[in-house]
Write a structure and sequence with these properties.
Length: 326
Amino acid sequence: MSLKDYIVSYIPGLWEDSKLPQEWLDWYNTLDKLSYSGVSIPNSNYQEFINNCKKYLPYLSDNQLHNLYYKLQETKRGTIIEFAAPALLVDHSCHIISIQAVCHVDDNDRIIGYGTTTFVLYRTYIHRCPESYNELHGDAKKSKPLYYDRALKYARKHWNNILARQPYMPAEICRFADPSQTDEDPCGGPQQIFNVYVHYNKCYEDIINGSSKQHKIYNQHMLLIYHSLLLFCELGGRGHGNSIICCYDGSALGFSSCSICNREFNDKRYYCIGGSAPICDKLYEYVKDHEAVIRIHYKLKFDQQIVPNRKLLERAQNTYPKVKFQ
């Protein structure tokens, strides 16, 4: 299901335009930039700081940016200041943006001091108020962060027809990995390539329920499939499932190898546990249909395997759970 199709089904009758609002797309791209290494904000003078912040924080007023600037000057170097930013889909929620002075580290990555001429601005996590859910949920927080009302007002002004309270949707992260390569993570494991996020209409454990045909049952209960971490931050919540998937055949990887394609990797205490079902047909079709955009989104090389081999996937589906994981 595409994002637009999801919005249509999520909020029936409110979608009239064939395109997402430009303000929504611009803000999505801004959050995407802030979600990884963040962006640098020069601090050589007051006006330069204000002008640069306006590029990334269009919802804040001049007075709020003014207060943020002087708050940064007055606080101890290295102090992190957090404040709210507009949510993309879920009403009564916000992303949390952090800003702090750039730190200097030694060869062992230990902080040895903080700069005075540059700040770094980055997205850290999602803040969900109780009103953002259709029912009581453990993720909700009653407190409201700095600039929360301003962030909510901006989202409602520019994409109010998209915002809605979220129904309970159990989630799973399908982490596609290459078992022929070892990841740079200290725990080793197969090299992670990209993630696909899945939501179901019932509890993950209830779907499995001991069935040997899990991949067929998943097809019946999938509500939403997408590959954007930003949207998962809003919709995913805590308590989601995790599956490490072989990019060559779509099966769940074992402790140190793939039982279908027989590729091996160094586990080093990695969290591949084996036993999970191979991906279902809907998930396979999503990856196949969105190969180009996934490749661009995750900045993958052209020769990187993304779509599992269909015949190998069918073999994995037909042999599960008879295979032995190693």
